[in-house]
Design a protein that fits this description.
CATH class: Alpha Beta
Order of helices and strands: HHEHHEEHEHHEEEEHHHEEEEE
Bound molecules: N-hydroxy-L-asparagine
Distance between the termini: 24 Å
Structural class: alpha+beta
CATH superfamily: (Glycosyl)asparaginase
CATH architecture: 4-Layer Sandwich
Radius of gyration: 19 Å
CATH topology: Glutamine Phosphoribosylpyrophosphate, subunit 1, domain 1
Number of domains: 1
Shape: globular
Helix content: 25-40%
Strand order of the largest sheet: 4-3-2-6-5-1-11-12
Strand content: 15-25%
Oligomer: single chain
Number of strands: 13
């Protein structure tokens, strides 16, 4: 099933399942399988470096990042190069080229990156530049600032030799034309758009970096920015502790400063899995939370190379490269058969 459809059906699952004994048993079985899968990814006796983890089904991006480190590149190069793979993938309609546009038909991209020193660079609402993750790195390394937005970021890109290109593919333009017929803008229930790539990596010395890149929510209001390029929202890395990254409805991630929260919870002794679960709990336990109608998913890694992932709805997955193997793993999730 295509990822987009998959997530759509996740919403229906979250909203519509009835509690029958067969279903409950099935859910319990699944829970056990997921817990077992998680345990096998956290076996402390196995070597964990280099390690790469990224949101969604992103095998090529993860493999590329691992190869960069195997070939002697830095962990920062690894996450940048890994994210570039998805930015160049025109089929992915939520990242880079081919990303679905805002309601005015403009593809606007957001990205951020963090290195092992805790430096951060970000670009927000950038048009006509495919590899915004590399632009975010340039902001971090070549300017005294941490964020550039819109036209200023685009101007900076040309100064740095980035190519101007049309990011709106024919498929995305058609999808936008179809959307315009009704122009229904319901970001809260529109949970099928979430395939932002957030990536975390650890090199052989145990140093961590992270990156996150997206075109944000489809048909968003012009100027809308989500969590992905915001430090502590879509991404946070502290080389002493670990890192976390988010996907899903950015507004909800931002309101709980999700990735920062996860790293701070790990600092206090929680495992990456426990920290991701607590960050989701903060969202769903808010009074009047409409969590049944939106998706948020987190990934995390700690300094030991233990990983975690958790989402509100089913069907969030992540790719994990570890011990020479690159696997797509289903995340555990909050809404079961309740
Ligand atoms: C945002 N978190 O802009 C992003 C959306 C997302 O794939 O995950 N898109 O809110």
């Amino acid at each position: 099933m295509k990822r987009r459809k998959f997530i759509q059906s996740a919403a229906l699952t979250g909203l519509g399942l009835t509690v029958g004994s067969a279903l409950t048993a099935c859910a319990e079985d699944k829970k056990t399988t997921e817990k077992a899968a998680l345990a096998s990814t956290n076996d402390a006796t196995k070597p964990v470096r280099p390690l790469v983890i990224a949101t969604w089904n992103t095998p090529l991006a993860v493999e590329t990042a691992a190869k960069v480190m195997q070939d002697g590149g830095t962990v920062l190069d690894a996450v940048e190069q890994g994210c570039r793979v998805e930015e160049a993938n025109e089929k992915g309609q939520s990242v880079g080229k081919g990303g679905l546009p805002d309601r005015d038909g403009n593809v606007t991209l957001d990205a951020c990156i963090m290195n092992k020193q805790g430096d951060y660079g970000a670009v927000l609402g950038v048009q006509n530049i495919m590899h915004v993750i590399s632009l975010a790195r340039k902001v971090m390394e070549d300017t005294p600032h941490v964020m550039l937005v819109g036209k200023g970021a685009e101007k900076f890109a040309y100064e740095k030799g980035f190519k101007k290109e049309n990011l709106l593919t024919e498929d995305s333009r058609k999808a936008w034309e179809e959307w315009k017929v009704k122009s229904e803008y319901k970001p809260i229930i529109n949970i099928e758009n979430h395939d932002t790539i957030g990536m975390l990596a650890i090199d052989k010395d145990g140093d961590i970096s992270g990156a996150c890149t997206t075109s944000g929510l489809a048909y968003k209001m012009a100027g809308r920015v989500g969590d992905s390029p915001i430090i502590g929202g879509g991404l946070f890395v502290d080389n002493e502790i670990g890192g976390a990254s988010a996907t899903g409805l950015g507004e909800e991630v931002l309101k709980t400063v999700g990735s920062f929260l996860i790293v701070e919870l790990m600092r206090q002794g929680k495992s990456p899995q426990e920290a991701c679960e607590e960050a989701i709990r903060r969202i769903v336990s808010k009074p009047n939370s409409d969590y049944k109608n939106f998706q948020v998913g987190y990934i995390a890694v700690n300094k030991k190379g233990e990983t975690g992932a958790y989402s509100i709805h089913e069907h969030f997955s992540y790719n994990l490269y570890k011990e020479g193997e690159n696997k797509n793993i289903k995340s555990d999730f909050y809404i079961k058969t309740k």
